[in-house]
Amino acid sequence: MTKGACRLLAAMSLCVCVPATAEIKLLAEGEISATALDQSHLSGLLEDGETPKAQEGGFGGAIAYSGHEHLYYAVPDRGPGAGETSYIERLYALDIRLNKTDKGFQLVPRISATHLLKDQSGRFMTGDASAFDNVNSESSRRRDSEAVRVSSSGTSVFIADEYGPFVEEFDIATGKLMRNVPIPNKFHIDFPSKYIREELNKNLVGRQSNRGLESLAITPGGDRLVAMIQDPLIQDCNHDADRKLVGHHNRILDIDLKSGNVKEYVYPLEDPKNGVSEILAVNDHQFLVLERDSKSGSEAKDKKLHLIDLSGATDVHGYKSLSDSGLVEEEAAGAPHPVYVQKRPFLDILQFGIQGIPEKFEGLTFGPALEDGHLLLILSTDNDFSRTKNTRFFAFAIDRAELPNYQPQKFSASPQHHRHPKPSGH
Fold it and tell me: What is the pLDDT of residue 19?
């Protein structure tokens, strides 16, 4: 199969690829054009002078299934230019269809509705890195949306932000903020800044710069959110010879939505240079974690899904540091060496013959079950608002024997509440 056959410069395309195993098959690839415009009705260009305010882009980093037919939701990140524009944060409704053809399958994605996100005062959320307050509070307007999950009601979504980091619930129909989900202080920095390397200045704890909450899962019953940051917290890292932060232990944050109680678990990275891009619930204690390197094409070496289990893992909520020296201090103070989450490789993305391996495989969600009973898994890529790189989607068929304890998410809303609501524009 030629590269051109797989990478049509069109809003939608087809790419049927050779499966790596009999248990997990790559059925098809689809695309949404990098130059397509959304339904926000925003006119004009952003401050970079070239990106339309209504351009679709950056949304392949966060995708979630609604539980109804072909309807999914996605959120773009902070826009082009690493936070240098006044890009308005938004929520997309996606229609993603896997059609059977004589030659296999065709994956057809499209954005069907756009909802601009607002705070409780009606002010637009923005990707502008300077739109924050000096205490890094939730009342600031700057957001870098990196993960989304649909609530059990089916009428709202939880969105994880990389700047704060924050987790918030938004009403789908209006795009309005409903509530903030409390995040432990250890995840927040004390001295926010608009500059990329802000943690090298004063911050000794909290998320690394541009490495906040990248991943979010919701348990099948909708009662817990499970979140992960992209890289280990500052206090969970060691320093290498060049004084750069090096961390092996990433925290998994488990939040009870009713009580607000939290637990934390240790996720060991395969390589400290890797980052975590997404987490997806299989049931209430097993999850798929997307861990990857930052390379593309032939340089890409590690892009995998890992199956983890929280059962039996130590709750490290009270541990101040998970660095090598920090764990020694914790043990000296009487705390046991933590039991990490159980972890095993589940799917190696690089083994499926995908053409033009992108750097950022980031979105992950289950979809409706396939006709033959296999599970449908959708993987998507973040194009970083490139005007030349399309957003790519990949449909995998998962034999249920691979995930025997899989439980689909339950929704309390009747089907009509899942219909595409009227888009909220400018």
Answer: 42
Say which residues have a Cβ less than 8 Å from residue 277's Cβ, sequence separation at least 6: 61, 214, 215, 230, 290, 291, 292, 360, 361, 362, 364
Residues sharing a CB contact under 8 Å with residue 87, sequence separation 6 or more, in sequence order: 46, 53, 76, 78, 79, 80, 126, 127, 128
* Euclidean distance between CA atoms 421 and 281, whole angstroms: 26
Question: Dihedral sign, CA of 340, 342, 345, 349?
Answer: negative
* pTM (whole model) above 0.70: yes
pLDDT tens figures, 167-187: 999 999 999 999 999 999 999
Domain count, the chain: 1
Structural domain includes residue 171: yes
Are the beta carbons of 296 and 358 closer than 8 angstroms?
A: yes
Parent domain of 392: 3-418
Q: How many other C-beta atoms can be found within 10 angstroms of the C-beta atom of residue 343?
A: 17
Q: Is residue 426 part of a domain?
A: no
Q: How would residue 133 be classed by pLDDT, with cut points 50, 70 and 90?
A: confident
Q: Which of 115, 136, 27 is nearest to 374 (CA)?
A: 27
Distance CA 361, CA 351 (A): 14
**In degrees to the nearest 10, what's the CA dihedral of 312, 317, 323, 326?**
-110
Q: Which tokens belong to 1?
A: 């199969």
Torsion over CA: 115, 121, 123, 124 (sign): negative
pLDDT digits (tens, 9 = 90+) for 134-162: 888 888 899 999 999 999 999 999 999 99
Looking at 138-285, which runs of residues are DSSP E strands? Answer: 145-150, 156-161, 167-171, 177-181, 213-218, 224-229, 238-239, 245-246, 249-256, 262-268, 275-281
Q: Is residue 311 part of a domain?
A: yes
Query: Is 425 within the bounds of a domain?
Result: no
Q: In what order do the strands lie in the sheet with 224-229?
A: 213-218, 224-229, 249-256, 262-268
The CATH number of whichever domain residue 275 belongs to comes to: 2.120.10
Q: Which residues pair with 252 in a beta bridge?
A: 228, 265
